Amino acid sequence: MELFSTQTLLLFLSFLTFLYLHNRNPKTRPPGFKAYPLVGSLPDFLLNRHRFLDWTTDVLRNCPTHSAVFRRPGKVHGIITANPDNVEHILKTNFHNYPKGERFNYLLRDFLGQGIFNSDGDLWKLQRKTASYEFNTKSLRNFAIQNVTVEIQTRLIPLLQRASKSESVLDLQDVLERFAFDNICKLAFNVDPACLDGGSGDAAVGAEFMRAFEDAATLSSGRFMSVFGWVWELKKFLNVGSERKLRESICTVHAFADNIIRSRMEAKDPHNDDMDLLSRFMAKEENSPEFLRDIVISFILAGRDTTSSALSWFFWILSSRPDVKDKIIKEIETVRASCEKRDYGEASFGYEELKELKYLHAAITESMRLYPPVHVDTMACLNDDVLPDGTGIKKNWFVTYHTYAMGRMESIWGSDCVEFKPERWFDEEGGVFRTESPFRYPVFHAGARMCLGKEMAYIQMKSIVAAAMERFEIDAVDKDTCPEQHMSLTLRIKGGLPVRVRPRECVMSTA
Ligand code: HEM
């Protein structure tokens, strides 16, 4: 019996080895993810987890329709696609068949509750309706511009000035994350956590909140990458390891948010009416304090490191592209020269001026094509379906559209798809910005759940870049090496982005 087991085991191992060697040979390897008996694509997933995005991009590139079936143990099956027709089908044409779904909801429920990112059906619709109305108001846009301007003028520029004087190396990703966190908290609650302002009295509380938020987001997204789902569930049950840390982080985040909601409810502060997002949702009396908390946490997540992720990669790319830098600076100087009256002080640009920064807009858009902040996005399949490229999908499978891979597909962007080329966003004559179908460029998602903060995000990103580049030369210390990726809910740079800051020589106005 024992001998039989040993022989069976040896046979099985030989079979696996054969499959492994067969699949390693590019000539004999069938397209798609390699699937082994019992373990599915797990061996390759483990081998490539550290370079998940590039690995999956390579696989999809070699598939005829850029879609592939992915199988993991524990009946986790699904499709990963970089095909625009499939993306349109999932996000628009057959939207009702592809909700976030139970698995996604379950993995993020502890952190996000029933907030807009983590809900489907009526709960989602209700939040979407209120939020879309509010996001379109001029008053919210003005509030956003005003907040960005104050943060740039009173914190960002002084910080960059200090770094340039001391000639020290600065972690720009960290600076951008602090900026975005202060900014989104102002917009969401009208509370200033002062994370970018190391010297302020409230900074320690704000910094603790930010750190806890960061941990909660990273540890929650880690659940998606866990090889066996029961491992994190057991850790949660025993309250040990990463799940213990997650619980503690979530407690800190909830306590901070609850505090603000409670004091706002008690104060009924007329000065906050109509200003931030919280007061707009509080106007609906049926919203419970817990639901308000979930809503606010989702908005912070949305605004927190999407823009900082986008700009970190942008500044890294720009460090080795002096030609693009020069064009951006020339445009900033032209727009600066043409503005007689500034809306919000010297440091930043008003809404109309930001609109004129078209080349900058294209450069940021191009950078997000190659390094999309939300690198992949996953939905669940409610009923069996066939995607437009002919790929069959079963009930309860997941479907992931791969935004990072889509930015690197020749079939979408042509043979120069991996080149950073802001010019590709203009028409033949070079003057008019060419909008792209959101199904080919799903950086802000598409269809019914498309990002509500897109305009706000561009306002923030363009303001930061224009104010910083007008005054400083910012160069990545290691500009020739592509930084390692860190996959949280957004795509970040592992270990941060060390930069050197120097004053720019030709500055038309100083802060
Ligand atoms: C570069 C910056 C940004 C990028 C690339 C981005 C991208 C996205 C993506 C891919 C989604 C879909 C996520 C999902 O499936 O759940 C999304 C949704 C959303 N975004 Fe953004 N976002 C950015 C900035 C912002 C900002 C600054 C805000 C708000 C202040 C915001 C608010 C939202 C909201 C509320 C949703 C949920 C929409 C819904 O489910 O109906 N985003 N965004």
Automatic annotation (TrEMBL):
Q: Which family does it belong to?
A: Belongs to the cytochrome P450 family.
Question: Which residues hold heme?
Answer: 451
Location comes to: Membrane
Alphabetically list the UniProt keywords. Heme, Iron, Membrane, Metal-binding, Monooxygenase, Oxidoreductase, Signal, Transmembrane, Transmembrane helix
One GO MF term on file is:
iron ion binding
Q: Which domain of life is it from?
A: Eukaryota
Gene Ontology CC: one annotated term: membrane
Q: Which Gene3D superfamilies match?
A: Cytochrome P450
Which InterPro entries has this protein been placed in? Answer: Cyt_P450 (IPR001128), Cyt_P450_CS (IPR017972), Cyt_P450_E_grp-I (IPR002401), Cyt_P450_sf (IPR036396)
Report the leader peptide range: 1-21
Against PANTHER family, the record matches this protein to: CYTOCHROME P450 (PTHR24296)
> Pfam family example for this protein?
p450
Where is the organism placed in the taxonomic lineage, from the top?
Eukaryota, Viridiplantae, Streptophyta, Embryophyta, Tracheophyta
Gene Ontology terms describing biological process: lipid metabolic process
Q: What is this protein called?
A: Cytochrome P450
Q: Could you tell me the membrane topology recorded for this protein?
A: Single-pass membrane protein
Q: Which cofactor does it need?
A: heme
